[in-house]
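Recall the central idea of this unit: under ordinary conditions, the amino acid sequence of a chain determines the structure it adopts. In this exercise we apply that idea directly, starting from the sequence alone.
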Amino acid sequence: MSVTAAPGFVAAGVSAGIRPSGKPDLALVRSLEPAVGCALWTQNRVQAAPVAVSKRHLAEAEPQAVVVNAGVANAATGRPGEEDAERTAVHAAERLGLEPAQVVVLSTGVIGPRLPMEKLLAGVDEAAAALSPGGGPAAAGAILTTDAGPKTALAGAGGFTVGGMAKGAGMIHPRLATMLAIVTTDYPLAPGEPEGFLRPAVERTFNRISVDGDCSTNDAVVLLARRGVSERDASLDGQFAEALESVCADLARQIVADGEGATVVLEIAVRGASSSEEAHAIALRVATSPLVKTAAFGRDPNWGRVLAAAGSAPWNGGFAQLDAERLRLSFDGTPVFADGSPTGLVPTLSGSESTIELELGLGDGSCAYLASDLSYDYVKLNAEYTT
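Accordingly, the structure predicted from this sequence is:
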């Protein structure tokens, strides 16, 4: 049930006719009990209308419901696009007995076109009537664009539940949140608390994945939690934080594995850097290198490409510190470069996962990243995205 796994949450997914294919394209999630929540948003300077509207709503009220449409991003649509997003929230609020500011609106799809509002609002009506505790799978299916299938995750925490759903396969690169994701929990939180739990979880999961190095205009991660702390045992906060991060990590990995045209998930681990920030810079550079990613597609252990990427990781106006004489590089556990020289070993890469490990020998900084390969299919799909 994913996003409705926690008691007190209902969802629905319907076909509103926004997508020409007729596939499900509108999802609605709401809390039946008073909720608190937060969202983390894309840092792209071009931000979609629903991002702007939802930011204002979250500054005014605690979120109680989320409306998501797929097929049209409602991005780069100017003031009319914001009016459409606001109208969506007002309409949903009327159907759910809420205030408009209690509704978060999310959109995903092609940038530029206006939302077909008659179809969208009719879809909201249909979804509102279909809300149920068993509606999680339908909602997860209704938010997809180029995804191969729904992405859901579930974890437990001291008798409480964390469930989530996400979409994302292309235009994936971390900037606070890299896709659309909604996570719900019956773990009771007070107003102002959700972001303290969500932000570190996102930083270590959704912010450390990359499919193509492009940051979306619509990215968001939303957390809805049951409101209240009187019944909470604060000693369970650590377990809840772990469960929340587990759900985010599961969804993040599913996004990378489902990267457009992806055939390999690359696990990139950098250890022994001068600082954690520099380790992050190096892992990010390797994860986004087109040469590393295309080599992964060909199952080619081209370690020279990894070294070149690692040695040119932008950091603090220059490059992150790296000493080739101290560096050790391994593919799937096989060392291919150590102490300034190749080892002569040639790993055999196969399967759908591959590990790249860099030991720098400079300090205690570390960072792990997930990335997909870059295939022929990725180019073909994105060359014909709107045509």
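The two ends are 35 Å apart (CA to CA).
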